[in-house]
Specification:
This protein has 11 helices and 13 strands. By secondary structure, the protein is α/β, with parallel strands linked by helices. Helix 3 crosses helix 4 and helix 3 packs across helix 7. It is globular, with a radius of gyration of 21 Å. The N terminus is likely disordered.
Length: 383
């Protein structure tokens, strides 16, 4: 656009969070490296205890990543071949893939036009006689209507699993993500609100038998009190490394501060984008949104995104293809899901991270307004 120079705005800034957290991590991290106690041990147990407490749950089991957390939770709950599990189509593919890898059948549901989250009505519409469970996805950092969803699930006799990979510290009616379902699954991928130095995840539950089974499944089938070579069930290797647990413990002390910074940045965004031709995701009054992502919907999204890129502004798309239209999952789709399909063409994730400045936000909003005003293409309805 005429070679005009603007400040580059990254989509996220992991180096800044690492620099802030490193003084809290350094001693234990280096000690673990030097002691060579890399698997399990006190560091993992300490983080599991602190994470369960933070979520308002009794138990947490560290695993290798968030995808494993979902699959292990389903398996531990007895979900398998022949069972249907309802999944909102507007989510990352791992949610549905975990169902398939557990041997079950994903049953796709549509989402709210306002929040892009599962609703009691879309859940109810998807239930069949084969449905055993629902994975409720807390997408972008916001929990959906858990009161209504739990009521529908209870009426239908469904197990509820929370996919809280993007919702560290999110709340519904004052209760944290991780405290509602039979199990809740978290990812600590580096870009998450609470991110490790690599892949990591956890399952949180209030049921000891579920926690014990997940721990055994994730550790080659060993029960808590069995010997190293006694395997009570066929399991796998999906353990949280001690070094990652140390990183997560250090960052957990900063999570609430970082969440407040994210929330403040989004408030500035919302004020700056008033009157712009964008549709912002609504926040339910009963929800505490922790803003893993700040998603807006715009017409001609791909063109707008390119315009922002030309100005040095990085953005994301979450997600360009809904799950029911992904090629390996299309065999499970039996109907159109119009809200998910529209959102896939319109959703644009703007830069957001705890150390974002007002100058960053002003640069993004000015560029976005300019891009929207300059498009001469045919208008595309946002609803």
């Amino acid at each position: 656009m005429g070679g005009r120079k603007v400040s580059a705005v990254p989509f996220t800034n992991l180096a800044a969070t690492t620099r802030e957290a490193w003084p809290l991590i350094e001693h234990d991290y280096l000690a673990c490296m030097n002691d060579a106690n890399y698997i399990g041990g006190a560091a993992v147990q300490s983080f599991e205890h602190d994470w369960a407490t933070y979520c308002g749950a009794h138990f947490a089991v560290g695993v290798a990543n968030g995808t494993d957390a979902l699959r292990l939770a389903l398996t531990a709950l007895g979900i398998g071949p022949g069972d249907e599990v309802i999944v909102p189509s507007n989510t990352f593919i791992a949610t549905a893939a975990a169902v398939v890898h557990a041997g079950a059948i994903p049953r796709f549901a549509d989402v709210s036009e306002e929040t892009l989250l599962l609703t009691p009505d879309t859940l109810r519409e998807a239930i069949t006689t084969r449905t055993r469970a629902v994975i409720v996805v807390h997408l972008y950092g916001q929990m959906p209507d858990m009161t209504g969803l739990l009521a529908v699930a209870d009426d239908a006799g469904l197990l509820v699993v929370e996919d809280a990979a993007q919702a560290h510290g999110a709340e519904w009616a004052g209760l944290r993500a991780g405290s509602f379902g039979a199990a809740a699954c978290f990812s600590f991928y580096p870009g998450k609100n609470l991110g490790a130095f690599g892949d990591a995840g956890a399952v949180v539950t209030n049921r000891q038998e579920v926690a014990d089974r997940i721990r055994a499944l994730a550790n080659h089938g060993r029960s808590h009190d069995s010997s190293h070579y006694q395997h009570d069930i066929l399991g796998e290797n999906s353990r949280l490394d001690a070094l990652q647990a140390i990183v997560l413990s250090g960052k957990l002390a900063l999570l609430e501060k970082w969440t407040q910074q994210r929330t403040a940045a989004v408030s500035t965004y919302r004020e700056s984008l008033k009157g712009a031709d964008v549709q912002m995701i609504e926040v339910n009054p009963l929800a505490r949104h922790v803003y893993h992502l700040f998603v807006v919907r715009v017409a001609d999204r791909d063109w707008v995104r390119q315009e922002l890129s030309d100005r040095g502004i990085q953005t994301g798309v979450h997600y360009p293809t809904p799950c029911h239209l992904q090629s390996p999952l299309q065999r499970y789709a039996d109907r159109s899901l119009p809200v998910s399909e529209r959102a896939a063409q319109q959703a644009l994730s703007l830069p957001l991270f705890p150390h974002m400045t007002d100058e960053h936000i002003d640069t993004v909003c000015r560029a976005l307004r300019e891009a929207l005003s300059q498009t001469s293409r045919t208008e595309v309805s946002l609803c």
